[in-house]
């Protein structure tokens, strides 16, 4: 990542579809007591301006919010707030404070997580990169781990450390996607994009094993590594990042849609390929280029809503959220079949993560990350937001609102 000169803002867009659920000027936490909060401030365990929300997930009455340990002073990386909470709720550590403490020698802890995923079996999957102070000294606490919690009991039910063969010196894991059906919870797979060294790590719950998958399409595109967001120009070289899954097809597998962050292209491969450790890296032509989204359409996270077939994705250079209907246009991925759901150069600066909940509501977290990384956030301004809209309202009036007779039958 290389920071450049300041860049002008683009023309102001206006979001009229996504309603604001939460907003923060700065994050705060629900400490046990005010004395505990003051002690955390005095000790440097809580430096408020170093806390930025990044990942979001929704399960029942909980909205999970991750806070990466970019810099010192983040007291808890995995958190939640009530879905019907206050406008600027204080974050509650998940499952508790002790689990989020970096100090000490405990083996059960969340060191640093960026994105999480709640599956249909009521489990929360957490990818923990194990590094703290990433923008400073980048101190490793432990190797990258996959942590899985039972959401009904708030207990850790599995901790898996990625194997040495899964990683490389520049590996960095900031996303986790789960492939499972509610009637076969023991046959789950997690897909872990390695954006730093251009690979996909696949984890099997049943085998409690993982393997690294390589392909040219996992690499960033050097023509699309330049970003201009919120008045900051910078260059990133992030590889495979966004991953979205189709429903289970007739052959028992899904389509795995993916893209590097520094790219405008979208690719697809059957999970039949990546689930097979013996052929996953040796089936070059099984991976297909779908098409591209058009200029300045670099995206972080993506998510497919099975009820509509719409793949939603962030549009970080446009301060927007985009969409493509995989049912209506299964073989047609282009600027004409992609659309902007919502855009706003004030309330949607750097949409970082998004999810669709079980009730087909689209949730988006925006956080002005480039300003946080390369300049300084104005603590008097609203910097972080969670936005939401029902999927059908979000896609209304766009090409993603395809008539039912266009929809591809699986």
TrEMBL record:
Compartments, record wording: Secreted
InterPro entries xrefs: 6-blade_b-propeller_TolB-like, MRJP/yellow-related
Lineage: Eukaryota, Metazoa, Ecdysozoa, Arthropoda, Hexapoda
Name by which UniProt lists this protein: Protein yellow
UniProt family annotation: Belongs to the major royal jelly protein family.
GO CC terms, sorted: extracellular region
A Pfam family assignment: MRJP
Naturally occurring in which organism (per UniProt): Ranatra chinensis
Keywords on record: Secreted
């Amino acid at each position: 990542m290389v920071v450049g000169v300041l860049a002008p803002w683009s023309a102001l867009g206006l979001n009229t579809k996504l309603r604001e659920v939460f907003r923060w000027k700065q994050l705060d936490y629900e400490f046990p007591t005010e004395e505990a909060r003051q002690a955390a401030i005095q000790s440097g365990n809580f430096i408020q301006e170093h806390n930025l929300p990044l990942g979001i997930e929704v399960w029942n009455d909980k909205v999970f919010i991750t806070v990466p340990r970019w810099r010192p002073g983040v007291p808890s990386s995995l958190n939640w707030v009530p879905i019907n909470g206050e406008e600027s709720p204080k974050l509650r550590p998940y499952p508790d404070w002790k689990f989020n403490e970096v100090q000490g020698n405990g083996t059960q802890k969340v060191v640093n997580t960026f994105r999480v995923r709640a599956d249909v079996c009521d489990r929360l999957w957490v990818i923990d990169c194990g590094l703290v102070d990433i923008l400073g000294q980048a101190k490793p606490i432990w190797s990258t781990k996959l942590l899985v919690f039972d959401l009904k009991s708030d207990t850790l039910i599995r901790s898996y450390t990625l194997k040495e063969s899964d990683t490389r010196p520049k590996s960095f894991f900031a996303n986790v996607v789960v492939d499972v059906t509610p009637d076969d919870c023991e046959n789950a797979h997690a897909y872990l994009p390695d954006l730093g060294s251009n690979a996909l790590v696949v984890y099997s719950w049943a085998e409690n094993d993982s393997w690294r998958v390589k392909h040219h399409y996992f690499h960033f595109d050097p023509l699309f590594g330049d970003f201009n967001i919120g008045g900051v120009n910078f260059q990133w070289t992030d590889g495979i990042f966004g991953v979205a899954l189709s429903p289970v097809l007739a052959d028992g597998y899904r389509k795995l849609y993916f893209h590097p962050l520094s790219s405008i292209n979208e690719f697809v491969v059957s999970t039949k390929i990546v689930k097979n450790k013996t052929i996953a890296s040796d089936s070059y032509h099984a991976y297909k280029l779908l098409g591209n989204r058009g200029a300045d359409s670099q995206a972080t996270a993506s998510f497919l809503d099975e009820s509509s077939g719409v793949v939603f994705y962030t549009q970080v250079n446009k301060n927007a959220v985009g969409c493509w209907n995989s049912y209506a246009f299964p073989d047609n991925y282009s600027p004409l079949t992609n659309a902007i759901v919502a855009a706003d150069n004030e309330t949607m600066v750097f949409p970082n993560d998004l999810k669709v909940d079980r009730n087909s509501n689209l949730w988006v977290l925006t956080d002005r990350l480039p300003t946080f990384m390369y300049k300084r956030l104005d603590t008097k301004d609203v910097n972080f937001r969670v936005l939401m809209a029902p999927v059908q309202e979000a896609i209304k009036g766009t090409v993603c609102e395809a008539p039912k007779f266009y929809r591809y039958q699986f």
